Each structure stands twice: as C-alpha cells, then as structure tokens.
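User: I'm putting together notes for a lab meeting next week and I want to include a structural view of one of the chains we've been expressing. I don't have a solved structure, so I'd like a prediction I can at least talk through. The sequence is below, exactly as it appears in our construct file.
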Amino acid sequence: MALPDEAYTRLLALRTGLRLFERWSAQQAEAAGLTPAQHQLLLAIRGHPGPEPPTVGDLAGYLLLRHHSTVELVDRAEAAGLVYRERDGSDHRLVRLHLTDEGARRLEALSALHLEELDRLVRDLPAAWRGLAPVLRPRGPVGPQRAKAETGTSSQ
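Assistant: Thanks for the context. Below is the predicted structure for the 156-residue chain, given as structure tokens.
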C-alpha cells in the first residue's frame, strides 16, 4: 500500500519545523554563551525526574550519546563552571551531576525563551502537522528508557 502524496508533504513540514526549531535553539544557546550541547546537558540535569540527581549514564540516555562522549561534555561544562560532580551518598561508585548557580541561571533564561517559542509554534502549527499525531505515537519504552534501549547505554 503506497502512502499518499499528502503524507510526504506533512512529514516534510514536520521535519522542516523541527530543524528550524533546532537551529533557533542553537542560536539562542550560543547567544547565552553556551554550546548547543551544553544547553542540552544543563536541561537534562535539571529536567531529570526522581529524587536523586542524574548520573552520567542517565545523561547519556537523554542526550543519545555514548558514555565516554557524555563524560567529555561534562568535563567541558564543569571547566566552564556550569556543573559539578558529587559522589552518591549510598553508592560511592556513582557520580551524580548538579548545576552550579551559573548553570542554573543560564538554563532558566534559555528555558523561558524556549517555552515562549514552543507556545508560538503550537499556535502556528500547520494543520498538516496535526494529521501526523497518530503516526508519532511512540512504540515501546518512552523517555530515557527508550533512549537507553536504542543506544545500549546504562544508568551508571
């Protein structure tokens, strides 16, 4: 069964919109003195659910990076004064990541801008995108569990 031309048009509109948002987001991060990867790292640390701060493995899952690449990103962010590491109180093998006051300040400003932009995008969302909702429903695990399954990363 061949897909109708309209499906390709809607998919193109979605992909273009996502790329435009990603470009806009990268420009906002750079204007705030961060790399786009640092912005995503700060968001992953701050947005991590649960009672404990995230580990490098958790962050690798959110960012869809390999463990060693995430460690390098954390090293650079720590050197820039954006994050700090702390050994887990009950399991000293784990290192947990926290935002510094500076990292939290920059993330807060960027997040406010991003929420405004997302509100604008939702208002301007082409009808073609709305038609993709049934196609975009995730299958299987969602969030970091899905990312871990797809990248083979663990939470340590």
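A couple of points you could mention at the meeting. Strands lie at 83-87, 95-99. DSSP finds eight helices and two strands in the chain.

User: Perfect, that's what I needed.
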